Amino acid sequence: MDIFQKCYNFTAAREVMALGLYPYFHPLSSGQDTGVVIDGRPMIMIGSNNYLGLTSHPEVKEAAIKAVEKYGSGCSGSRFLNGTLDLHVELEEKLAKFVRKEAALVFSTGFQTNLGTISALVSKHDYVVTDRADHASIFDACRLSFGDTMKYKHNDMEDLERVLSGLEEEAGKLIVIDGVFSMEGDLANLPEIVKVGQKYGARIMVDDAHGIGVMGTNGRGTAEHFGVEDKIDLIMGTFSKSFASLGGFIAGEEAIIHYLKHISRELIFSASMPPSAVAATLKALEIIQREPQRRKRLWEITDRMHQEYRNLGFDIGTTETPVIPIIVGEDLQTFKFWRELFDQGIFANPIISPAVPKGKALIRTSYTATHTDQQMDKVLKVFACVGKKLRVLAS
């Protein structure tokens, strides 16, 4: 068998292309903002994770430009050897202080952060326990580790306890959960997870990629939102969302971070974050702390859209965040829904199985603090029209 045969046999995407419904890899010819240009057409963007609207903030852009002027375009090496800048160290110190942990470590991407943390910590005879709706990077990290992976039903605390109660008492255990689930928009039940985890001697790591900057009074994330910051052992976050940049971090006890710095293959054998990305993240962190009004505006928009979609009759599941799924059902119908939105100037994201359970395909919408009321009015008008046309809503 030719190893490439699987590639030649892969026809699913081309079949959707032939129907004119292919939704992926559309190039933007503008900056990532609430309004974008795609295929030469202006569109309202409700498919971005730019929650606080900082990708176009003049101070963030200026910080990135100045970093390139001072440090150049890249670091030409890993953090372990020649690739650590004073900017990296400054960012780690400020992130640790922000999330109230002893130390932090930055990686080149959020995906690498999970790979490099989980695979380094979970050894043979250890267990990593995950929610079935966790991000793909968590599951890939589990595969790279030498421990055993145990999954529990999404946000089902009884099933979590069932899983933990069946593990050897003396074994090492790490519970890894998303703080905000990126497709459904709902929250991990951190208070109960902490309670059950402590009962069985498990450590807890929260992937708060979609929570940092958004959740909590001060934007410190889902743990702050629930008041359990001191009960969470490791906080992971990414810079490609609220921080308007690229990269990721893990924060926790100094001894744990020290271990990861010397053991994590994903850190040691990857080039470090480029200066522009580090500087942009530093400036974004500063703005997140000094401009809470951005978070306030984001939640005003979020609360409105939750209510309006429900009033229209859409099924938005159990979301509690600016990630609002519009559940359509079947994959092909979801692609049709996406195409109708696209043709009417709205860019959102179609999510199909296996990213969500079969029969639960959805349009993933997400909102930004800088969206205007006029933009939201148009979005709602178009969704109502498309929902009725495709019979997702009662006419």
Written overview of the protein:
This protein has two domains: 5-56 and 292-389, Aspartate Aminotransferase, domain 1 (Alpha-Beta Complex); 58-290, Aspartate Aminotransferase, domain 2 (3-Layer(aba) Sandwich), CATH 3.40.640.10. The protein has helices spanning 5-9, 12-18, 58-71, 86-98, 110-121, 136-144, 157-165, 190-199, 222-226, 254-263, 265-268, 275-290, 292-312, 331-343, 373-389, and strands spanning 35-38, 41-45, 103-107, 127-131, 148-152, 173-178, 203-207, 234-238, 248-252, 323-329, 346-347, 349-351, 361-366. The chain is an alpha/beta fold and 395 residues long. It is built from 15 helices and 13 strands. The protein starts with a helix and ends in a 6-residue tail after the last helix. The strands form three sheets. Strands 3-9-8-7-6-4-5 form a seven-stranded mixed beta sheet, sandwiched between helices. It has a three-stranded mixed beta sheet with strand order 1-2-11. 42% of the residues lie in helices and 16% in strands. Helix 5 (110-121) runs parallel beside helix 6 (136-144) and helix 13 (292-312) runs parallel beside helix 15.
- DSSP strand content: 15-25%
CATH superfamily of the largest domain: Type I PLP-dependent aspartate aminotransferase-like (Major domain)
**Can you write the helix and strand succession as a string?**
HHEEHHEHEHEHEHEHEEHHHHEHEEEH
Strand order of the largest sheet: 3-9-8-7-6-4-5
Give the count of structural domains.
2
Q: How many H/I helices?
A: 15
Which outline best applies? globular
The CATH C-level name of the largest domain is: Alpha Beta
**Residue runs with pLDDT of under 50 for 5 or more positions:** none
Number of strands: 13
The mean pLDDT is 96
Helix content: 40-55%
CATH topology of the largest domain: Aspartate Aminotransferase, domain 2
**Rg, alpha carbons:** 21 Å
Distance between the termini: 52 Å
Structural class: alpha/beta
CATH architecture of the largest domain: 3-Layer(aba) Sandwich
How can the largest sheet be summarized?
7 strands, mixed
